[in-house]
Specification:
Helix content: 25-40%
Strand order of the largest sheet: 5-4-1-8-9-10-11-12-13
Radius of gyration: 18 Å
Distance between the termini: 25 Å
Number of strands: 13
CATH architecture: 3-Layer(aba) Sandwich
Largest sheet: 9 strands, mixed
CATH class: Alpha Beta
CATH topology: UDP-N-acetylmuramoyl-L-alanine:D-glutamate ligase
Strand content: 15-25%
Number of domains: 1
CATH superfamily: Ribokinase
């Protein structure tokens, strides 16, 4: 198994359980709340480590209690944090998450220290270690991700989860030239292709044909599983497990972490997708944004499963 590098975000999550998600202008009452570790980068790194991979993280936190606690959490999870910068001038990133009785969620993120991750920090951290797979998301500055991509040798597999999408999808053009595997959800796929969001599997297939990207694409479809398209092949639909979700927060991140592990093990992409679909499905049976590494509790580090 080769090593995995994750360049991305670290946030402390404040989660609220509600009966239904609020509509614009609506006030709803929460039944309970929980504080846990999150950020798409942190979620994906912990998922990969929980599945047995050697994982290094490159990112940023504040020089605050939240940042120190998060770094210790990552160390306990088995993630190397030598690549995490600590900034005194800003706080660690935070996210506010609302989860309804159907397991659907609404998320608002304050990037905090994540916004200070830059090319000067990232490039030497990427160059300083042999990585078989590198996993990126879009919760940190694009210039930092472009620097990571440019520093990687050609044999390193680069996976991009394009979330959250920038207002102008064209801003990703330079980064996409180096990406080997693109993992959008259906909303992000529509934005990348310059079309409306595809609602059905058939519409997803049509949207994929309009996408200007030469690598492999895996579209995550939530309860509908995922669709894989490799260069020169027809799209293949991989169905999801039939489960009753408790919390879908972080399911896409569990998918990406599991996918990176499969690729680091040398699995064929199709096999890696099958495993990732299963891991993502099972992650929805537990509350929180991260795969469990410790007994559940209400404090950061234990509340995410």
């Amino acid at each position: 198994m080769s090593a995995i590098g994750v360049v991305g975000s670290l946030n402390v999550d404040l989660s609220y359980r509600v009966t239904t998600l609020p509509a614009p202008g609506e006030t709803v009452l929460a039944r309970d709340r929980a504080k846990a570790f999150g950020g798409k980068g942190g979620n994906q790194a912990v998922a990969a480590a929980a599945l047995g991979a050697q994982v290094s993280f490159i990112g940023a936190v504040g020089q605050d209690e939240a940042g120190e606690t998060y770094l210790e959490h990552l160390r306990r999870a088995g993630v190397d944090v030598d690549g995490v910068a600590q900034h005194a001038e800003v706080d660690t990133g935070t996210a506010m998450i609302f989860v309804d009785d159907a397991g659907e969620n609404l998320i608002v993120v304050d990037p905090g220290a994540n916004s200070l991750l830059d090319a000067a920090w990232v490039e030497p951290k990427v160059l300083g270690q042999p990585l078989g797979v590198v996993l990126l998301q879009l919760e940190v500055p694009l210039t930092a991700l472009e620097a990571a991509a440019a520093a990687l040798p050609a044999e390193t597999v680069l996976v991009l989860n394009p979330a959250p999408m920038p207002p102008d999808a064209g801003a990703l053009r330079r980064l996409l030239e180096r990406v080997d595997v693109l993992v959008p959800n259906r909303t992000e796929l529509g934005q990348l292709a310059g079309t409306t969001e595809p609602r059905t599997v058939h519409e997803v297939r049509e949207c994929l044909s309009a996408l200007d990207f030469a690598g492999a694409v895996i579209v995550t479809l939530g309860a509908d599983g995922a669709i894989l398209v490799e260069a020169g092949t027809e799209p293949v639909h991989h169905a999801a497990l039939q489960l009753e979700p408790v919390d879908t927060t972080g399911a896409g991140d569990a998918f990406c972490g599991a996918l990176a592990v499969g690729l680091s093990e040398g699995r064929a992409l199709a096999d890696a997708v099958v495993r990732a679909v299963e891991v993502a499905g099972r992650s929805t049976l537990f509350r929180g944004a991260q795969l469990s590494i410790a007994p559940a509790s209400s404090s950061p580090g234990g509340g995410a499963s």
